[in-house]
Amino acid sequence: MIDYNEILKKGTKMLQKYFGDKQFWRVTMRLAFPIALQNLLTSSFMLVDTLMVGQLGDTTLASVGMAGQLSFMLNMVLFGLCSGASVFASQYWGNGDKKGIRRVLGITLIFSLFLSVCFMLFGIFLGKPLMYIFNKDNEVISIGRAYLSIAAFSYPAVAISFIFNTFLRSTEKVHLPMYVSIVTTVLNAILNYGFIFGKFGLPLMGVRGAALATCISAWCGVFLIFFISLIEKNILIAPLNQLFGFSKADIAQYFKKAAPVLFNESFWGFGTFIYNVIFSNLGYEYYAAVTILRTFENIAFVFFVGLCSACGIMIGKSVGCGNIKRAVEDSKRFAVIVPLFALIIGWIIIIFRAPLISLFNFQNNITDLTIKTAMGIMLIYALEMPIRNIPYIQIVGIFRSGGDTLSGVKYDLGSLWLLAIPGTFIAAFVLKLPFVAVFAAMYIFEDYLKTFLCLRHYRTGRWLHPVTEEGKKALALYNAEKIGKFI
Questions:
Q1: How far is CA 336 from CA 97, 149, 184, 332, 333, in A?
Q2: How much is the pLDDT for 153?
Q3: Distance, CA of 109 to CA of 107 (rounded, Å)
Q4: CA distance 383 to 343
Q5: Which of 57, 120, 240, 415 has its CA 20 to 30 Å from the CA of residue 193?
Q6: By three-state DSSP, how is residue 363 classified?
């Protein structure tokens, strides 16, 4: 006979374990909310771009989406560098080592600026061959090249902002990036409207106006963060000898942790680039649908970015100061909360996807094929969201903050390059499946095996790799205690 009282007790105990820690929620919301809001504003920045460009038609919308892949690749590289840097920053912060944080900041600035300038030059001088990879249509290539030749000047600003935001977050200064994003988002919206459509006495520039608005807004964000940091005297402001007084040993230690993450994010970004080449070569209307989805995907994803960033800060800080038990307890909570939250967001997207997509077609300038395809792939994305966010929180939030930057490389890139890309290519060009089925194949091949591998690795506890002496000593004691209980 089923004992419902016992089931109720176990359920209550489990809820208390994962959702009843007030300190956990207080810290999580203090960190996650500003980060999520800042990313929401950044995604709104992109939504404004996409909505206004969408008024110029399917071809322009698809062209700008294709041109934006270079910026996406840069963001992946920067994310890799900054993720590696945040391992040190959060653990050093937990240990109170500000000089160590600033040395890592200096190293990250130098390498990120170098890479962003390389991407900028590529966008300015090689925009045409890049667009040709995506689509052979002359109009698509011309529009994309025009956009890219101006937007590329924003790349160094994007790099600097990325770094500033990462180090401010890692030191629990999460509000400044949020406030700056409010200003830049509003500025971008005003400039987009002015330059694209020739309003407020500004020249009518069309797609070039969208690119120019992006540039101006991005650089204003950099200057604003730096100016406020000068007033606050936060972690970004330091003597040059602290920022750039690092040794070869510091660089070696940095890249020992950062190189796997950089490799991971760069090749994951390149894999996404390959996906987009496959999609765009199936037709620009399909790619316009993907561009619409990506816009809303970025907005939905901000909640998980906030939770994942809070997870990284909290676990990294606990590991750095030697509180291994707290780090493990918090990791369990995040491992449960994130997919549950994804389930809720996914159903909201399913319910409201039709009115959301219709925002792009209020002047009836988007084709029925694009709208129908966008509806289908948004449904696939919403259903897949809980599974897709399990490896995300494991790799980015838990493993990396614990100091394990290598395991995610194996799981991420193995699933992507050995399964997902070949599977998507075969679905598209060999089996010639409908576009929605091709899109679903991408998710299925990439996510399911990776989710299993991540959860298996998490259960072993081998993701704990402190970089501070306090953390290393505490981990040894924690493991000894576990062995003692097992014996």
A1: 32, 44, 34, 6, 5
A2: 95
A3: 6
A4: 8
A5: 120
A6: coil
> Which residue from 273, 294, 360, 287 is spatially nearest to 140, judged by alpha carbons?
287
If we measure between CA atoms, which residue out of 84, 170, 90, 85 comes closest to residue 408?
Answer: 84
CA distance 439 to 16: 39
Burial letters 250-273, b for 16+ CB under 10 A, else e: beebbeebbbbbbbbbbbbbbbbb
Whether the Cβ atoms of residue 89 and residue 167 lie closer than 8 Å to each other: yes
Angle between helices 248-280 and 98-125 (to 10 degrees): 40
Question: Roughly how many angstroms between the first and final C-alpha of the chain, as a whole number?
Answer: 36
Q: Structure tokens of 324?
A: 């291994």
- What the block records as the tokens of 22 is 């007030």
Assess contact for 269 and 75: CB atoms under 8 A. yes
pLDDT in tens, 377-413: 999 999 999 999 999 999 988 998 888 888 888 999 9
What are the structure tokens assigned to 235, written together?
């972690």
Using 70 as the pLDDT threshold, list the residues of the chain that sit under it: 1-21, 38, 41-51, 54, 58, 361-365, 483-487
Query: What residues contact residue 279 under an 8 Å CB cut-off, 6+ apart?
Result: 286, 287, 290, 435, 438, 439
User: Of the candidates 383, 399, 397, 483, which has an alpha carbon nearest to the alpha carbon of residue 440?
Assistant: 383
DSSP state of 172: T
- Whether the model pTM is above 0.85: no
